[in-house]
């Protein structure tokens, strides 16, 4: 079985979503299906079909989350150190073309959220950064052509 690296907060978010789906969403769908059934003819009952579709999606997501959660290997970035970029590192970069700075934390695939600065370990940028140190430049393929970034800072924890 393949293990997925993830930070503790990322695992907590997935477990919270799973708990909510099982304890709130699933019972609400069951009530909606029962209510729609009470209206009679199921073949032309849009509420019933919508509730069944929602149930199918929810059950699929529950199954997906259970598989992910059972395959997680939690890595604590605070226990790591050094000046090389590894999983869990917070990396401050500067775009060498635009001088725009950005900071990202390299996290697991299932907890990535670029808007929050959480960069997936499988992204092209993260793959380019792994193993590099402060002062190194990395070139990353992008739709508009390669982008070059300089690593300004690497921290853990």
TrEMBL record:
Any GO BP: regulation of DNA-templated transcription elongation
InterPro entries: GreA/GreB_C_sf (IPR036953), TF_GreA/GreB_CS (IPR018151), Tscrpt_elong_fac_GreA (IPR006359), Tscrpt_elong_fac_GreA/B (IPR028624), Tscrpt_elong_fac_GreA/B_C (IPR001437), Tscrpt_elong_fac_GreA/B_fam (IPR023459), Tscrpt_elong_fac_GreA/B_N (IPR022691), Tscrpt_elong_fac_GreA/B_N_sf (IPR036805)
Keywords, ordered alphabetically: DNA-binding, Elongation factor, Protein biosynthesis, Transcription, Transcription regulation
Record PROSITE patterns: GREAB_1, GREAB_2
Transcription elongation factor GreA/GreB C-terminal domain location: 82-156
Single Gene Ontology MF annotation: DNA binding
One Pfam short name: GreA_GreB
Transmembrane spans: none
Positions of the Transcription elongation factor GreA/GreB N-terminal domain: 5-74
Record function comment: Necessary for efficient RNA polymerase transcription elongation past template-encoded arresting sites. The arresting sites in DNA have the property of trapping a certain fraction of elongating RNA polymerases that pass through, resulting in locked ternary complexes. Cleavage of the nascent transcript by cleavage factors such as GreA or GreB allows the resumption of elongation from the new 3'terminus. GreA releases sequences of 2 to 3 nucleotides.
PANTHER family: TRANSCRIPTION ELONGATION FACTOR GREA (PTHR30437)
NCBIfam families per the UniProt record, alphabetical: greA, PRK00226.1-2, PRK00226.1-4, PRK00226.1-5
Family: Belongs to the GreA/GreB family.
Name the record gives this protein: Transcription elongation factor GreA
Gene source species: Komagataeibacter xylinus
Gene that produces this protein: greA
